[in-house]
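R.M. (postdoc): so does anyone remember the format we settled on? I'll just put the structure tokens first.
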């Protein structure tokens, strides 16, 4: 029998920037977990195109990549009938709330953000105010939906902390307006390292393409990259300090097969790295195959994508506008 007092599901929100095809690392570390999270919680997921323009974008490319990442969110298995899936720029409340929150955020706080320091060094010719205020926009994304949980990687932890600080500050002045979000730390979010330089995180901006597997790499490309992954001279598949290359491949294999490190060590006992790499490559190919196949179907159906985006923006606006209105009243905007 259904419980009469069914508890409200916690809300979870995350966003992904439309800056190129995500990597196997993005997939295993984050995206793969989103569909089960959307089942367990009340979910909203967005393509963060407003964030993308903090570095210069080519318009046609940004437009194409936004549609591609939206298609990817569907391809990984998020269900637009159960979960809000939208494009950030299509919900004006994000930019509106971000402005208000800018006025509740200190210059000093933003100056301390490590990602700002890194990005302003990397884009020294375009250290714009949007790049500086990027975490405030991210806070607006989260707070508009009154999200309880935000799944974030290590690189976004500091931004979530700031979102909490801004929310607490605002609530301290105006009463309970915002839910204070917590980081959602996944069970087995895998940290995938570069295949060529396993001390470094796998990244789509890696200048050496051999170190990175893209979600949409063809099977033969995946096999080739895995086979040329850096290992060590011990020739024994075991998880141990100093074996970064093998540890990384074991982590990837574990994530794709669900096997524990001990089970993997047993499976490859007495076998060489050659056999191991073939199995890892095959496991990655099988892991990504359904995503790629669904993606190819979805990206070619522009009418469907448009429909999903419109429905998502409408649902997202419904929630976001309620929070925005409350904020506007609190700060004293005249709403005639
Ligand atoms: N800044 C995040 C990233 O680059 C993307 C993002 C934007 C986000 N808004 C968010 C993540 C809100 C979580 C919640 O990865």
């Amino acid at each position: 029998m259904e419980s009469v007092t069914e508890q409200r599901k916690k809300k979870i929100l995350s966003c992904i920037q439309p800056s190129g095809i995500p990597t196997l690392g993005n997939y295993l570390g984050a995206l793969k977990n989103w569909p089960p999270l959307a089942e367990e919680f009340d979910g909203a997921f967005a393509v963060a195109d407003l964030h993308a323009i903090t570095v210069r974008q080519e318009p046609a490319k940004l437009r194409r990549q936004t549609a591609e990442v939206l298609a990817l969110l569907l391809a990984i298995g998020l269900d637009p009938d159960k979960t809000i899936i939208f494009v950030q720029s299509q919900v004006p409340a994000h930019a509106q709330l971000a402005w208000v929150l800018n006025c509740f955020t200190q210059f000093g706080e933003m100056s301390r953000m490590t990602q700002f320091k890194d990005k302003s060094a990397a884009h020294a010719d375009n250290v714009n105010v949007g790049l500086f205020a990027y975490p405030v926009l991210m806070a607006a994304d989260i707070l508009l939906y009154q999200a309880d949980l935000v799944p974030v990687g290590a690189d976004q932890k500091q931004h979530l902390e700031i979102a909490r600080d801004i929310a607490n500050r605002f609530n301290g002045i105006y009463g309970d307006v915002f839910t204070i979000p917590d980081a959602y730390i996944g069970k087995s979010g895998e940290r995938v390292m570069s295949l060529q330089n396993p001390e470094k995180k796998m990244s789509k901006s890696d200048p050496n393409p051999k170190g990175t597997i893209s979600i949409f790499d063809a099977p033969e490309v995946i096999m080739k990259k895995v086979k040329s992954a850096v290992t060590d001279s011990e020739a024994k598949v075991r998880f141990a300090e100093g074996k970064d290359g093998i540890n990384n491949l074991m982590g990837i294999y574990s994530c794709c097969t669900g096997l524990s490190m001990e089970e993997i060590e047993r499976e490859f006992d007495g076998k060489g790295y050659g056999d191991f790499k073939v199995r890892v490559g095959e496991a990655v190919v099988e892991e990504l195959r359904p995503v790629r196949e669904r993606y190819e179907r979805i990206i070619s159906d522009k009418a469907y994508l448009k429909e999903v985006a419109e429905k998502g923006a409408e649902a997202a606006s419904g929630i976001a506008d309620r929070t925005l209105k409350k904020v506007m009243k609190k700060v004293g905007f005249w709403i005639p």
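R.M.: ...and that's the designed sequence above, right after the tokens. Also worth knowing: The mean pLDDT is 95. The pocket of tryptophan is lined by residues 13-15, 17, 48, 51, 138, 141-142, 150, 152, 156 (CB under 6 Å).
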